[in-house]
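Task card 7
Instruction: Convert sequence to structure tokens.
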Amino acid sequence: MQRPSHVNISSSAQDRESFRAQIKVALGLAIGNSPAQAHLALARLEPRVNLGDSEITALYFQARAVANIKARAIDEGFKAFELALEAARIHGEPALCGKILNNYGTAAVQDGRIDLAIACLEEALEKYQNRGSSRTVALLSLAEALFAAGDLQRTAVVLRAFHTIQSENSARTPTESYEHLYYRLAASAVGIPVGLMLPDKALLRMSYDPSLLDLGFARREDWLIGPLVEAFCIFYEHEDRRDEHDTLLTRGVNALSSLDNSLHLGIRVARLGTAHQLARVSTLMSRQCAGSSRLLRSHKNLFDSFIVARRQTADRARDLGLLAAREFARAGRPFMQALALEAAGFAEEAQEVRGRCGARTEAMRLRWTGEPVQRRLATSLTERESEVAQLVVGGSTNRTIALRLGISERTVHRHCESIFAKLGIHSSRQLSAALAGISKSE
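Output:
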């Protein structure tokens, strides 16, 4: 990736504000999982980027970085983050630098080096010494990174600092704002497993609040729902509350439109979900793990390991699990390494890995196994899926289908994902031929 070479943007305050607003729109598209649209918007802006304007350069490359990450172009995304950070340091505004560091670190937690993630997030926290909400976000991002790295004690320290700030805010403002509730959702996703493993009853008490689930689902944000549902599922499995677990897992799967920040929940579905859930989530997993990232491929290998085990092919399941475990170990993700070792049948070794991270309980041990599934996932369409498929073949848009069938566009989107997964296709252009193939086989 090369820097834009253009330098002809007007320097007037009005033009700069307009340009800044357009970059913000592109960033919003990327964050909203529309990276293709974000790239188009940024391509229109590129001829006007002035590399002599460090603030605009930083904002532009930050948006480009996020768009690349969302498009699974991980290496290109990290290169763009480096350019954005370089420009932000030249600009010298702590808030801008801190925001880019936070976004860079968060991306690295999911897709890159964990040491890079922690370094970025610790620096971001320093930039936000006296900034309320920004400092809170940095604390939560750092807690997520430290947990991914297996540092339970430091994660707990950071989470306690977060809750201290929350308590101080509550004392000043008795009515809790949505912003603060939103932070509590993110904190619970980390606080529940950490509280269970240490064990830390006080931290667990602050983190475990089932009413937060309704709030999370109401927001309909995949990146938040997935980790939150996974944390509560960990708690229910530890407490052997299978019915509550399965009900929540179904609710979580139905709410997801992607596995962005929700790969762990996708792996749980591979282990414990129904055959119908597997058909849908396998499509989301393949889409999320596309690209060149070895870390993402290891998530897919672990996902496949659990599915293969449920197909009663033990040797292949062990091989996939060990392959994932080695890559997670290399990437510094000990809890994922332990999960992969368990998938491969090495439960004692998995517990040793968690013990080295400071876990004093077996809270993360896999207590349940899923029902066996067929060698091939179900391919028969439901009556409603058949209706949707025929309308898609006829050229109807999702909106038209939703109006005709009296359902939401989101539901139509879910039906299409399930149809594609069952038929082994990737787009509506392939649907006509796939349906014709079913008719012939019948």
